[in-house]
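step 3/5: co-fold with magnesium ion
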Amino acid sequence: MRTLIKHALALTEPKSGLVLKGWVRTRRDSKGFSFLELNDGSCLSGLQVVVDAGIPGSADLHRLTTGASTVVEGNLVASPAAGQKWELRATRLELVGEADPAYPLQKKGHTLEFLRTIAHLRPRSNLFGAVFRTRSRLAYAVHQFFQERDFVYVHTPIITASDCEGAGEMFRVTTLKGNLDENPAADFFGKPAYLTVSGQLEGETFACALSNIYTFGPTFRAENSNTARHAAEFWMIEPEMAFCDLQGDMDLGEEFVKAMAQFTLDHCQEDLAFFGKFVDKGVQERLRFVVERPFQRVPYTEAIGILQRSGHSFEYPVDYGLNLQSEHERYLTEQHFKSPVTVFNYPREIKPFYMRLNDDAKTVAAMDVLVPGIGEIIGGAQREERLDHLRENMRSHKLREEDYWWYTDLRRFGTVPHAGFGLGFERLLMFLTGVSNIRDVVPFARTPGNAEF
Ligand code: 4AD
Ligand code: MG
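step 4/5: write tokens
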């Protein structure tokens, strides 16, 4: 494999005959030599290359403008310049691909909105390089967390016929032309099919066989909400544990978020420092806080009381039986608790059919983890493992039991208490990097009216 700039910068001794390849960020010409700043995306830092006039290939130097690609061979030597350990004294230069003068990343300081319109080029900017390296490392950290704890990774289907969340925000998958409802049986799967909103139901079947499982994959929601924290396509992590109750579920959620914060502090230092400098001044301190302090836990009913007594005027009403809106979630975590907080035991009417009814017969064993800056990052629950209660829930949610026959079977054949949650990977990334719009932590965001690239 070729030497990446990250490897070169990590060397402890000078080295001759290095070959490095990348894109030119800037070029400065002096009398008799030029400086190139070369970046290959392997790390935030670029490498300063000193090109003396007359070396092989230097006749092409004027064509090495910002954005052009090049191969440089040379010797890695201690740099006299401040702030960098090494520089490369080029012995040979090769132009690979010129960049048209229209290259849109000429200057620093483009707005995030503008950079979204060039999503094919923005990974070459400092910010987006850092975001997508961090995304990659955290994807690895997710697997590491669960694999180390003997959770089995399950690939749940992307195409499904069941609406897990019952919210009806699903994208239809069809080969039919014309009126889709005229003869659904003639459709490809013999019935209406959709892109999944959650792998949970299928995940439960595997937990009821392999004990502890997790999924990690793309998830789709046709919510027409153009907010900074909703995407039509996002990645969800869904662990599910057999022989586990709500308490164990909340414990895992907290342990997981803490582990991701610790991993970012330990393994994404250079990029995290960049976020701390240019995106969110408090990000490192926040991550340390998350790692060190236990999350707060509060029942829904108490959370409603806190909000009602707060004296704060909210746009949406606060009352028992109503959903917590983003502004309420953020008030709880940012103003009141000043910490991540897990809200649990929600009214049964506002939660999906699969959640376990509590002994008060009013609330279900649901839990949401709320974090500062974002609000809900995790939604989970202990599942209803009692067949009669589950049937009753399905009836009250107007679901047809025959559509979920395989799901109810789990309650018929060796049912067990079990629990799990879903965590939106993009929201986790927003929380850990300080990037405030979900569109900027997805390589190619899918939002209402936008499927470019
Ligand atoms: O709270 P949700 O809807 O829960 C479920 O889907 C459960 N079936 C999960 C489970 O128990 N296995 O979604 C879970 C998380 C949310 O907390 C949020 O982080 C994320 O998924 N999420 C979204 N992220 C980005 N864009 C959207 N439109 C999202 N909708 C949910
Ligand atoms: Mg939720």
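step 5/5: annotate
DSSP finds twelve helices and 16 strands in the chain.
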